[in-house]
Amino acid sequence: MLSENPSLEEFEKGLRDLLARGTLEFSNAKDADALEQARIEFLGDQRGKLREFQVALSKLPKDARPMAGRAFNSAKIQLTEAFEQRRGELAKASAHGSHRDLDLTMPARQQWRGAKHPVTVVIEEIEGIFRELGFTIATGPEAETEWYNFGALNFPPNHPAMDLHDTLYLRDDVLLRTHTSPVQVRTLQRYAPPIRVLIPGRVYRRDFFDPSHAPAFEQIEGLCVDEGISFVDLKATLTRFANRFFGRRPTRFRPSFFPFTEPSAEMDVQCGVCGGSGCGVCKQTGWVEILGSGMVHPAVLEASGVDSERYTGWAFGMGPGRIAISRYGIPDIRILYDSDVRFLERAGQ
Amino acid sequence: MNVSYEWLRAFVPFNETPAKLRDLITSRVATVDELVPLRSDLAPFVVARVVEAEHHPDSDHLWITKVDAGTGALLDVVCGAPNVEAGKLYPFAPVGITMPNGLKIERRRIRGQTSNGMLCSPRELGLGEEHQGILVLETDAPPGTPLLRVLPGGDTRLVIDVMPNRPDLLSHLGVAREIGAAVDSPVRLPNIEGADSSIPAAARVRSSGRTSGVDVRVDEESRVRRYMAVVIRGLKVGPSPEWLVKRLAAIESRSINNVVDTTNYVLHELGQPTHAFDLAKIAGPSIIVRRARSGERITTLDGAERALDANMVVIADAKRAQAVAGLMGGRDSEVSESTSDILLEVASFDPASTRATRRALGMSTDASYRFERGVDPALAPIALERTAQLIVAVAGGRVDDAPVDVYVADSLPNPLALRASRVQTVLGDAVPADEAASLLRRVGFDARVESTETVRVMAPTWRTDIAREIDLIEEVARLRGYDSFPDEIRPFRAGNVPDDPQWLLARRVRDALVGAGLLETRPMPFVSGAADGFVRVANPLAENESYLRRDILDTLSRRAEYNLARMQGDLRLFEIGAVFLPHGAMPREELHVGALIMGRRRPPHFSDPKSDEFERAMAFDVWDAKALAELIAREAYGTGAATIEQGADGELWTIHLAGERVGRVRTLTLDAPVWAKPAFGVELSLGVVDSTAVAPAGRNAHRASEYVPVRVGPYRPIPSQPAAPFDIALLVPDSVRAADIESAIRQVSGDLLESLLLVDEYAGKNIEAGHRSLAWRLTFRHPERTLSAKEIEGRRTNVLRHLEKTLNVRPRTN
Q1: Taking CA B86 as the corner, what is the angle to CA B81 and CA B90, rounded to the nearest 5 degrees?
Q2: What is the DSSP string of B567-588?
Q3: Distance between CA atoms of B370 and B348, rounded to whole angstroms?
Q4: Pick from A185, A230, A255: which is nearest to B29 by CB?
Q5: Choosing among A142, A302, A314, which should be mutated to test the B contact, i.e. which has the most B CBs within 10 A?
Q6: Reported ipTM
Q7: pLDDT digit string (tens) for B24-55?
Q8: B147 three-class SS
Q9: Distance from CA of A138 to the nearest CA of B (A)
Q10: Which of A106, A111, A112 is the best residue to mutate to test the B interface, defined by the most B CB atoms within 10 Å of its own CB?
Q11: Closest Cβ opposite residue A340 in set B483, B492, B563
Q12: Is this structure's pTM higher than 0.80?
């Protein structure tokens, strides 16, 4: 207790004692009730012991008041902190204690999980690898002119090469693109080389929806055009891609034919199932075909208004749907497109 | 295309096993899809030598033999054949294998003697009817050699995927030529006994001629590159000899009779289709190659009656069509048992014309397949001589007059220059001129090295695919082997093309929707549609899906029904894809995002209350749909850029961007079972897909990539002053909309109104009829000081007064 008109010394000493006792009481409080009792005793608004010092402040000599005020504030802050700290400790302990009866082996409350389509996952993975090699994304329309889809890509009119592209037509010279390659021409016309683009998109074929065909499916292709781009660059880039995508399995290139590339090459990776010794998956060849590729045919550059003597390039195309099928072991291509939620949820996991 | 391993070996000597040959052809020429071992049921049988043979002590006809089957030990084998003889070689079935008739060979005792396997007769091996004695093998092969190695019936079929640019590979000759180049061996026609009769040289004419009393005339010169005919008289139609049957069987071609088989044989040997007419059935006798008459009909060899039109070329006699040029002969003049004289046609029909006719008639034959891709006119005289010689060899008869040859020689192609520097540019590796020339010569090119830089090249007549320098570069690359080129990464320049903005946009929206728990789909974009307002596919696969969709919700609704039919009612589907609207010549194509939600908002949890009320509250409702629309709009157009307005005509809301309607939210009507929850759909446009031409053919419109700024909101200081929130509960007549009240509140609240949040809606007990109660929380905040109680009270009074005055909305008092 302070005297009626305390001196500064008395005030400060009393404050120190109060702080020491209060801190001790707070930290010794066994539970929330005891702590609350201690709070009222020291920090209570009406009869708290600290309150007494606040009242006493005004009775101090004028010149002692600033010093005493600072001491008071400091003591109040320290006491409050001590109280809060103990309160936190008790709350934590009680949180543990009050949940002791829950059976924590029971399942959590779930949210629906979203998922990208497996084909999107494959496309984004391919995109990621090619981005490291400096490729960006280009796209184009699905309804195309015959010229962009065939003419500019060096398809001879009325040629059996067209048989591989059974086409859905909208009008005489307007069709649903049969491959993403028309975007090669659009890109070559729009931007000057150097060009390094990846072209994902939906394409159409006049194929019945059956276990191994879909009338609409996805393709992703790449195009690289600049001065001095060669077959070595094609092999190097695609081999690098295959090693990143399929693991370090041997690859091979074999002759093929596409009207818009020459030389044309198909790329195989060694069968991952049998390791090259031959099995049902690879039809006993030991190899699995993954993409078609080739050097951009000069006729395509010429059709796109690009100097075919100065520039050379390569291109490739592959089916992310087919890759998804083999990766997930999907027995029927229609499962990719039927949109059964049980498939989509599982594929996203 | 099917080829036979043994047949190829008759053209060119090579030692590669079938598997090695497959790899060789695949890596240098064309992909071999499949290897089919023929008579693979004989694969476990081996060649064995009988070392000793003694009579069985308890039998008149059995022998006890000791057999060397290459196992290192002599086997005791009991044999009942009269012709077993020590020292000779026979087919042997070891213990454990299964005979072609299904009998399993086991070790067994025959009259007290152990027998470890069986020596086999032709009939037991399925090689003929002979069963009196075992098959004596005339071979040098050591015991233990697989039987198929020494037996003529053993062969392997290679199925080659020949690309449309290489019609020259559609024959054993063509494939053999490539093998010869790869193994560096000469190629020659297989020698066939008796096929050496001399055929008189053909007489070349411009449009018509005569052979052995038959007039031959070609009216359609532009569509028939060469037409040769020869008459063979006095032949005898009958079964083909065994070698011919076997050759055809190896490539899966059925034997018919010796004449037809020979024409088939030559087609596969040389790639030249030919046709034999029964001369007795040819009116005139004359052969006229002309256009079909409109309304003309023909019954082809397959028994089908076909209607012809004036765009088709036929081979006719004096009266009527006897064959469809390049496709198939007619039944009337088919070679039969009674045929003794034939007219043999060896022609080269125009590819485009054959293709058009083939498509119009909806049929394809071995002949049309080759004519469509191009049959070398220079091959005709060779094939004619070969076919005639073979027919005479297998069916008798004679050629008594020089063949007719209607042919206006094609002009020679121009020589091409192959530059070594260009080879290096395209292939990335130096191939010296003389190496390139020697590679080309191996496959029949005429290649002259003019300098270290230039090779002058003439392609052989059968290489119709060679038109410019790049074609020669491809030849050099593949003949040298693609694997001979390095695959090191070389320095490159960065590209000039920026990422497509629509792709980036789609990716943002997709990531947001996946994050919100939705499942991405990629369904087929065809719908049942209607003649008006939809883009129709001219040649659809199915009439009930002959239109392209004009909105994604149409497709997603069908996918939802698919799931409902499989008892799946908790659906959160979305798709980002193209939709099509009629619009002049090209459809208007837009990139849309569509989302469909129905069913539970989250998976059930054991702690959930078990009540119908809770079930209902847990299901997706219109507010979830609105939230989804806002989420997409925010991702797609930026925060605050789009407005959402109340919709009409069955739509809940419409979304607007810069004055244009870009999306909508609606309740979906599905073909749904009774237990299904309501379904909601959201669809927004992510922009028009540009399908205009970038530049005219052969031109470019090169431009610099434009700067696409990143959208960011301005910085707003984090508040340092306390907020002053208060609630107002209002009694709202049904005619007044929440949005009206919100805008009225904003009107009088001034800049200090930080947020306005609807916190409750209530109607029913204690609320006047025709009204509902709505409650808002208004939060005011001054950036620099604490608002006084008086200021806050003043604002509350202002707001309430304004609402009452303008909207007749009063505070709720109970």
Answers
A1: 60
A2: T---EEEEEEEEEEE--SSSPE
A3: 10
A4: A255
A5: A142
A6: 0.86
A7: 999 999 999 988 888 777 888 899 999 988 88
A8: helix
A9: 5
A10: A112
A11: B563
A12: yes
